[in-house]
Amino acid sequence: MQDFTVNPWEVKGKVDYDKLIQQFGTQPITDELRERIRKDAGELHVMLRRKVFFSHRDLESVLKDYEEGKGFFLYTGRAPSLGMHIGHLIPFIFTKWLQERFKVNLYIEITDDEKFMRNPDYSLEDTRKWAYDNILDIIAVGFDPDRTFIFQDTEYIRNMYPLATKVAKKMTFSEVKATFGLDFSSNIGIIFYPALQIVPTMFEKKRCLIPAGIDQDPYWRLQRDIAESLGYFKASQIHSKFLPPLTGIEGKMSSSSPDSAIYLVDDKETVRRKVMKYAFSGGQPTVELHRKLGGNTEIDVPFQWLYYFFEEDDKRIEEIKEEYSSGKLLTGELKQILVDKLNSFLERHRENRERAKELVKDFKYEGKLAKAMWEKVHE
Amino acid sequence: MQDFTVNPWEVKGKVDYDKLIQQFGTQPITDELRERIRKDAGELHVMLRRKVFFSHRDLESVLKDYEEGKGFFLYTGRAPSLGMHIGHLIPFIFTKWLQERFKVNLYIEITDDEKFMRNPDYSLEDTRKWAYDNILDIIAVGFDPDRTFIFQDTEYIRNMYPLATKVAKKMTFSEVKATFGLDFSSNIGIIFYPALQIVPTMFEKKRCLIPAGIDQDPYWRLQRDIAESLGYFKASQIHSKFLPPLTGIEGKMSSSSPDSAIYLVDDKETVRRKVMKYAFSGGQPTVELHRKLGGNTEIDVPFQWLYYFFEEDDKRIEEIKEEYSSGKLLTGELKQILVDKLNSFLERHRENRERAKELVKDFKYEGKLAKAMWEKVHE
User: Motif ('KMSKS' region) spans which residues (chains A, B) (predicted)?
Assistant: First the structure.
């Protein structure tokens, strides 16, 4: 009996990640592989040390190509939304580290078309406005403007379409419908969209590495079925676990329940209030009991958030764990640590976001990679 | 009992065009409407006089808009093929007349994408090569380079795609599949394509008139269902009958049986040989019988071709009809009249085609209309 569900539209229950690796047929990131990354990258990102990124497909081949000087490239994307939350930023933060350590090109697809065609309530004008807004948050993460190309489907389509017709010709409605949750009543735009999601994996004749939540894996199986017949590589992937929602350790942070997420625009007071009020605690009901029995870090969301990313110092996170488990650190105190970390992260993010406004044109059109990409038609 | 079939993929049997008007629910071009066209255009094209163009949708509204100074525009297209035959040119010749008389813009879509995605055997490189070749034949018809925009889907997609997503969002797989002959095994590119066929009907906020064979009518019913909800006009149409194949009065000229068609590249001797050998005759088996009984112009393909288009002189075609019916004109003589007409038409066409090479850049990119269209994104 299975007590969790993971697919591209839904993450439910307490996910057993070892089981998921078996189910999806992906590979675990073993200690050995982790060491190889450390050697190649010169260090290990906190999300690798803590096994937030825990699974992969063909990552060894990517590292081999890197080690042999053949190189690789990174690809990720974003379906624009009204506002991004902390969870949305996780893969970008990790991707930025990969780019920095491996000095590789990164392509970021902004799917303003898909978001519009998927949702009856949104206009194309909405999703393009959100695209601009989300791009600022993405740029704020700190990518290399000469090695990063951020493109919106509705703008870059001309350069992608010839190759998209070749990709599309290899995928029948039957093949895409299950993976993308389509049926007879789906509109014909959203049926075509999978081709546009696959094209960027073929932007270079090198291996493409996609960092993403493991729930996205099924999308790339289609790509892996057809890539080689078109003369490209099967997409490699590195998969993350899900940052738990504030309100409990199960599922995945979601925009549809605002109290469960910290938004990038949340001000200091909102962050404090949300964490204090909604963050699910592994602590005991009273101070007395807590001092006596200690908290449970396994189910404590503030601890998990610190562990996933917000407390990067390995020694310090161990201290926190010990002090909380032993009852020395109270729930309110642990929450305050997270509040401070979140607020200083968000403050820095918002400063970067302000500066990002000047950089949009570089990432989209005028940076070294962007410029080269606009001159290139993918066929 | 129905002894003919007409749909976008097949024309079979001897078409009863009056019945077809009822079946498709289109309107006949009445004497009254024809007179109105004559008044507006200053003359009547031979294909209108001879009722080759015989049916329409909303043509009155187009003429009303023209008469009131609101104007309209023309739209037609071509799925590129290895070589065009005479039948392919008929709608272009008529469209050229419409443009000349009404001084309106004309958009010609070259569906290199659709042709490629529809046919397992073709590469995109094939269909784009044919696109260039077919464009020469189209330009040779003599369109106004400042009022005509010829565009290939794979090139102009960026300017069409935002509006295409809006069109696509309004059409489900269920709705397009019957009309376009799609099913579960259709590829996802060809499923999306109907959106790209509809977008050009919305290139201007004026009525769009589409001259085409009546077999194409079903494609535009989808457009008529959704156009107004997007703030555009339902597409108007003017429908032609089918130029019969050389080999018999039934069906439609087809590239799949080369003997039944005269290709634009066929040299004088090939034309003579094909007409003499394959053209289906309404004459009698022997000269003696023919002199006595006369020929049947109703089923005689050489006569029908002369009547459709190649003998524009109304007095002369009546003479030929009478002489053939009375037995004065023999089958071989009638065929020779057609051979001479075809060869002089093709000679002129090929001269124009040579000159067309210099004009491609104007029709596609640099002409007055083309230039304006490249600066415009349809949203």
Answer: 252-256
